[in-house]
Amino acid sequence: MKKIFTLLYQKIIRLELISIGFLGIIIFFSCKTYEIKLDNPIDAIADSIAGVFPPALTMHPLTQTVSNGDSITIGTYIIDHDTTLAGVHAHITYNAELIQLDTILPGVLLTNNGANTPLFTYTVVFGTIDIFAWYLGGEGALSYVTETGHIAELYFTALNSGETLVEYDTTQCELVTPLDEIISIQGIRNASITIQ
């Protein structure tokens, strides 16, 4: 009798091991592996993976697909300038036959989350935007910011089907310190818009 229980027990253990192995194989081959795409343009690590090193000018979102007549919003940012930043000149180009600029609003970087009013001005000529923003801090003090931040928000309307880049022209973009020293821009990430 003891021998029968021992044999029965061994067969049950063997069946359990086979079942566990079979379930393990099913689980292993049924799982889908996802690759995480680090494409947050205001993340210095994601920028370095994309080959863009600070200080950098970036846009967010990097890609958009819209239909004719849709609104398009693009944020412009500066990443890790690692020094005192007092002013920004962002020269941005886009295809004005595909998208039309509606408005530009200052970002929170130079407004100190709304506590200050920066000197913020811009000019728009067919397909070109020049944004000028200066930090205006306390009277008599050197005024600057030192963190990554939002320069401006651009609002467009899609006009015609096609693809366009909204891009920085780094030959004309400038970052300056309170002593009017140029901060060298090391990288850019532009926005791509597909209009269907």
Summarize the structure in words.
The protein has 196 residues and is α+β, with helices and mostly antiparallel strands. It folds into 2 domains: 1-33; 44-195, Immunoglobulin-like (Sandwich). It has helices spanning 2-30, 44-49; strands at 56-60, 63-66, 71-79, 87-93, 99-106, 119-125, 128-134, 149-158, 162-168, 174-176, 182-183, 187-189, 191-195. The strands form 2 sheets. Strands 2, 4, 6, 7, 9, 10, 11 and 13 form an 8-stranded mixed beta sheet that branches. Strands 5-8-3-1-12 form a 5-stranded mixed beta sheet, with no helix packed on it. Strand 10 (174-176) and strand 11 (182-183) form a beta hairpin. The chain is elongated, with a radius of gyration of 27 Å.
Topology:
Layout: H1 2-30, H2 44-49, E1 56-60, E2 63-66, E3 71-79, E4 87-93, E5 99-106, E6 119-125, E7 128-134, E8 149-158, E9 162-168, E10 174-176, E11 182-183, E12 187-189, E13 191-195
Parallel strand pairs: 1-12, 2-13
Antiparallel strand pairs: 1-3, 3-8, 4-7, 4-9, 4-10, 5-8, 6-7, 9-13, 10-11
Distance from first to last alpha carbon: 78 Å
CATH architecture of the largest domain: Sandwich
The profile of the biggest β sheet is: 8 strands, mixed
What is the general shape?
elongated
By secondary-structure content and strand pairing, the structural class works out as: alpha+beta
Helical run tally = 2
CATH fold assignment of the largest domain:
Immunoglobulin-like
Please report which band the strand proportion falls in: under 5%, 5-15%, 15-25%, 25-35%, 35-45% or over 45%: 35-45%
- Ranges with pLDDT <50 over ≥5 residues? none
How many separate domains? 2
Helix content: 10-25%
- Under CATH at level 1, the class of the largest domain stands as Mainly Beta
Q: What order do the helices and strands follow?
A: HHEEEEEEEEEEEEE
Radius of gyration: 27 Å
Instruction: Count the beta strands.
Output: 13
Q: Assembly type of the shown chains?
A: single chain
Averaged pLDDT = 84
